[in-house]
Design a protein that fits this description.
There is one protein chain. The chain is mainly alpha-helical. It has a single domain, classed as Fumarate Reductase Cytochrome B subunit, CATH 1.20.950. Helices cover 67% and strands 3% of the residues. The protein is built from five helices and two strands. It has helices at residues 7-30, 35-65, 77-107, 126-129, 133-172, and strands at residues 114-116, 120-122. A two-stranded antiparallel ribbon has the order 1-2. The longest helix is centred in the C-terminal third of the chain and has 40 residues, at 133-172. The radius of gyration is 20 Å and the shape is elongated. It starts with 6 loop residues before the first helix and ends in a 22-residue tail after the last helix.
């Protein structure tokens, strides 16, 4: 029985995690900058966000074609449900946050083009970009609220996910963290009792 995620799933997991953490920090930092520094950071934030969107869609497709290893039989029912719910909430955030950001850029009164990684032109969402001023303002307000609350929810979900991973690694010692971390054991440690 397979006890680890595939190498591609592991690579996508850690790449997306690093990009999300970077973008959460950039999103917070942008509010304290002005002028060209803020513009440059905003462009980087958009580049990372769209990259997260594309990688997350790829990761979801990979997961559908390559199911993850089964959860441990020793896990309690509530742990299994929490694990499943957490993973699907992450997919919702990994796809939803970039989409709400893209929607806000598409309706922005500034109408600034997006150039991913200072190289690749990225279009506005056509049907949003052609809305009248009132429609754009409404989309921007709703999208901005969703984006902000998803960011807060994302921070809480990351904290919960890390806490659960550490619990499995250091308390349960069941190898769950080793399923996704290269070099760690992905099977339970032998009992310390003799």
């Amino acid at each position: 029985m397979r006890t680890r995620y595939s190498a591609i799933a592991i690579l996508l997991h850690w790449a997306i995690a690093a990009l999300i953490l970077a973008n959460l920090l950039l999103g917070w930092r942008m509010g304290y900058l002005k002028g060209l520094a803020q513009f440059d950071m905003f462009q980087l934030h958009k580049s990372i966000g769209i990259t997260v969107l594309l990688l997350s869609v790829a990761r979801l497709g990979w997961r559908m074609l390559n199911p993850p290893p089964p959860l441990l039989i020793s896990m309690k029912t509530w742990e299994r449900r929490a694990a499943g719910t957490t993973h699907w909430l992450f997919y919702g955030l990994m796809i939803g946050m970039p989409l709400t950001g893209w929607a806000m850029v598409s309706v922005s009164a500034y109408n600034i083009p997006t150039l991913l990684w200072k190289t690749v032109p990225w279009p506005h969402i056509g049907f949003l970009h052609t809305l009248d001023a009132a429609g754009k303002a409404q989309v921007e307000a709703i999208g901005g609220g969703l984006h902000f609350y998803m960011a807060l929810g994302g921070v809480a979900l990351i904290a919960l996910h890390v806490a659960a991973a550490l619990k499995h690694q250091f308390i349960a010692r069941d190898g769950v963290l080793g399923r996704i971390v290269p070099g760690l054991r992905s099977t339970p440690l032998p009992s310390q009792e003799s």
